Amino acid sequence: MLWNATRDSSFTLIGCFTRIPKKVKKMFMMSWWIVCILSSFLGFTNLSAFTQTTAGPCPEEYVLGPNGSCYWFYHDVNDTNWWYYSRGACQNRGSDLLIIDSQEELDYILNQTQTLAPDQTWWIGYYDVSVEGTWRWVDCSDTSDWQSTLWVSGEPAIRKDCGILLGGTGQLSSEICDEKFNFICEVSPKDFTIADTNARNVKAVAINETAIRVTWDVSPYNCDVFGYRVHYQQYREPSNAGFVQVYEGSANETILSPLYATNAMWQIYVAGMQIEKELEKVGPAEVWFGPCPEWHIPGPNGTCYWFYHDVNDTNWWYYSRGACQDRGSDLLIIDSQEELDYILNQTQILAPGQTWWIGYYDVSVEGTWRWVDCSDTSDWQSTLWVSGEPAIRKDCGILLGGTGQLSSEICDEKFNFICEVSPKDFTLADTNARNVKAVAINETAIRVTWDVSPYNCDVFGYRVHYQQYQEPSNAGFVQVYKGSANETILSPLYATNVMWQIYVAGMQIEEELDKVGPAEVWLGPCPEWHLPGPNGSCYWFYHDVNDTNWWYYSRGACQNRGSDLLIIDSQEELDYILNQTQILAPDQTWWIGYYDVSVEGTWRWVDCSDTSDWQSTLWVSGEPAIGKDCGILLGATGQLSSEICDEKFNFICEVSPKDFTEEDTKPTNVAAVAMTPFSVKVTWDVSADNCDVIGYRVHYFKTSDKNQKGSQTVYEGNANNTLLSSLETNTEYSIGVAVINLNEELEQVGPVLVTTPWGCPDGYEEGPERSCFAFLNFTRPWGVARQYCQDVANGDLAIIDSQPELEFVQRRMQEVNPGQMWWIGYDDISVEGDWRWLDCQPTAEWQLPLWPSDEPRFATKDCGYIRESESAVEIRSANCGENKYILCEITDKGFVPEDGNARNVRASPLTPASFEVKWDGSPTSCDVIGYSIFYSKETSPSEEELETVYGGEARDAQIEVAMVSQDTVYLVSVAGLNWLGVLSRIGPVRVTLTPESDNREYFSLTGDSGAITSPGWPTSYENNKDITWTITVTKPGRVLLTIVSIRLDPSGDYLTVGSGATSGVNELGRYTGHKENVGTLESQFNQMWLRFITDSTITAQGFSVTFEKLDDGPVEDCGRAFTDLPSGTITSPNFLDSKPYPNNAACVWTISLLDKMALVELSFTTFDLERDQDFLVIGSGLTVNENILQWLTGQHDSRTVMSPTHEMWLHFISDESQSGQGFRAMFTSKAGEPPTTPVYKATDSVLFVVFNQNVGWFDAVNQVQLASTIAEVLNRYNVAGQTETRQQGDFDASDVVFVSFYNVDSDLHIVTWVRDATWADPKAPLNPDTVIAAVTSESEYFQTSMGESFEYKLQRAVTPEPSAAPSGLEDWVIAVIAVGALLMLVLVGLGVFGCGKSSQDKQSAKKDERTRGGNEHDDFRPTSFGSDGTWNPAFHPVVDDTEPEDDEEPPAVTVL
Length: 1456
Known about the structure:
The protein is mainly beta and about 1450 residues long. The protein is built from 18 helices and 82 strands. The two termini are about 80 Å apart.
């Protein structure tokens, strides 16, 4: 017989098949049948050559079903069994309980069951043992849509965890697993092993000194896992051990608490629990308990020490130090006798008389002994040496435990060691070389110098790398020993007329540090890129048809290398030039140093020499043309032509020394003469060396007020005068004249002083005490009359504030138009009955008799006029809309309309449908006729509403809104109204309205510490609760709240916390969901409120918090650290009190989110700072002044800043004068990708070269200063006014982007991109020429703002040359790789279906899995800001969607 195997030798391939997908297995079964049939025909009756069994395709007692499946229908009404026993019977035979995959299979099963045991009930492989309510099959597959239709109506039931098949109907039902039924087994291979069902990636973190949070990843194959057992034991103390059990297969964390052993290592394991057994323990995850790092114990003064003592396991010095550093410490630094006594006491207890490595060495510089924090040896420490020590070439220090003395030893000796937590104030990068420079000392040698770090104690030398530019194969390095070395000479370097790139890297024992550089130096007799020509001249022929440039850029490229554009002096030189150009770029066109930029039509060379007769013969016929100001050489003919300077060509440079300096181009003999009371004529003499001069800028300011500066620009280099108009009378002015050349504005020549005579403007006449009046002999309403008067600077309706003025006005009214009524600047528009002049002064005693007895009148007669009545003058009131004659006066009131606005706005809740708004008035509010209150819900700011109260004396308003059903925050702003319109909004401030609650409860807690939990904690709280707690600690302390646990239903239950005693005000945070150890909150004063609200649906465990007193007193909220919080609120100092922030503030906030994979989103609801004087700088990470994202100033309605990591810092800086309302911002945790890195083109940028400064100088403060200065310069220059089509826009510091900054030699280069604020597009660049022109125009203001020590030059940024992409692999290489990959794929496929893994392999796999442990999901944080100061534009708000080009792979360097 073909199948004659016994039960004991049952079909062993089944064990193999359990690793094969079900469809593949069925295909194999069908193939097996074909083999069997063929074997019968061929006479084979024994298949032992193919397998070890002869049992057939199915195990004994199993029947073959459809699609090759094998089934066992166990049916015995006298021997039914519960579910787990039934499953075990299946598993003992290499199968499992039935999985019903299709209607076809179900039909087959029902046919068999009706034949064998009609209408019986059968156990099948379906259950929710792992997670209640989640039904899965025994292969861990989920319920399909079709399978879910098989349930009996109303099924499955709760707590009935095992599935049955009703044979009579083919439906499924749930049952208690201990019931007894027949069962059906099926050979259903699984694609996982029992080990695959276990917990994974076990991690443990200490959350305080007695509790550990344990987390693990849940397997997708956890259908048999009903919970987990978490084991813990103290390292090397196995008796101190235990475990806790966590139920549900989806559980992934627990907290072990309390664990009282401190300064100890705990080992944590997690094991899945199945019905019949506990799986293997996964771990250990190790966590150290205690205030010190792992293995360290507390010592005196809060220091932590680790005494490693094992005579059988001593180590050399470097290994010992590494062991310390791996645990966050370093070798011991002995700072005092007290510390030494403690150390000796400990060493005598642990290992008497032993020798110990300590953190003392002279590795960097022989004979200079320093500690591992790079501190020098103190006088006291030097007394600890054994006599005759230290010895030469013994570079590492030891402590003799028996005597407490120090000695030196060879670092490779082996001793015990002592570690200490001794924080260093420097990083690894700080130890490296700095400020690398290179200078050619002859044609084959380069001197390289660098600055040595003061933190170089670990640096034993430097490696100086060199390579030829664009020839990376010509490279090498030299090593210089001693950490104090700061120079070397590279010689010989035989390649001449080439550029060399030099880098320096510090060398430490274990690694070479990052290379610092490059410093670039040219070797050869001529400047960089120049070649020798005839008569000893040097020329550079720049030729690249893909990178041509405009004239100014080309000239700058020459000047940057010590030359200038070509001057053609002779036919001999011209012949040489043409010969070279024909060789390099035949028939091309070349820029040369010939132009008429200074004076149209006057062509001169760049050395200011005039055109010679011979040179004039070189012009192409009909040239030069008007409006084409730059000269070109036609390479094909040798002739000259003119072109627009913005065209792009190749160019030729020449070293051509000039016999004049930039100083010689300035004007001389500057003079100024007053022409009228309002104008001054300024004259000067023009320099003969003015070929680069395109015009002059005349600067002026009042000597009495140097901040009010003006300027006027005159174009053409031969201009020699201008007229300054619209000046003030009787005023001394300081005047200077500055040259504007092609690159910049030079320093002013002057100043000269001139005083304008006193006088009135046109249309005005002189009154008493040098006053100016205008009698406009036509009538208008009062408001229109004011506008007519205000057409002149400081003009308004007349304020009659003296008896002489009154007499003058009376006389002139008679002369101009007798008997008429004249509007004056007197009204009670702001406050009815409170008559004030337009300078807000009240009525003087001597002015009262001017009112007739029946005046002033109330109601609608609010505006004053003056007239004659029976030879006397009287003031009367009238309706402001009446037409009267107009009396104007020039008066400096001393304030502007905005000064009369509301101040100190605040809002507080009244009822669930109303709130009160209050504000302070201004002493200069006499023009204010009322106030508008703007309010909207914080969640829908676009749905804003408005309410207006009239009367300048109004100071509050009550706002009615719709009744709220839940806590609702309103944003409220106030704006004054004057006769012209609405002033700026002040605000917004926040007010929270709370719904009425019949069951609202209030509790007060008084004391300096305590705890609060939700009712029912930790079991369950009730629905529809509204509870408020108020905490009060003794003054002058503050409340520190620690949120231990939040376990709330996120759909409608939440806990809100705020500062103060009034709930809904000064909210600090709002919490819901499930979180542990959320963090801490601090109140501003000695009170804090908590409000807990639940809805009518789902409940949870609740919350637990503790509080204690902080003894530092009330704070102005000037900075704090937000650690491990999901959200929070940041406000400027005094903001919560509705007061302006203080002057001279410097506050820092840091944010570190609880979710380390999230991003910080910072959203401002209020922002009001003094523009360009007070700043908020925002950056990524926790190190202030690095990774700057934005700086903000002025006023913003709303703004959002996103950090590319889970950390953010804010730095608030205010100056010594003026302030604003401040700011309020909310930070939240945001999932998503970091902001897109924008692209800033070099062609759209300018380059500031700051002389004698380095990257370290350019910190956040100086960045803000430069950015705000550039913005103000652009506003002064009136960029919008330079164009015809753009609308006026204001620049601020946030429009300025510092794309990169780096050192070149001793100078700082800052590549700067400016957004065009006159366009709505946030990515539109401002033309670099406009930036240069603006800074040049406002150079005096620019220099004053940046300081006299800020020496700079400004030019267009250089466009980087595109690098050629690396060539691809050869085709045959790609083909070989492809074939190899295909073969690997085949081998991997065979491995997947392989069956013969030995038990040793399985154990090895388990060991590998344990070894991987917690490294599978290590956090990744993007870097942002290089240690060399290079800016990453991803941290700036302007986002460009353009995709950057891929960077070229760095070339390989061959070491010579």
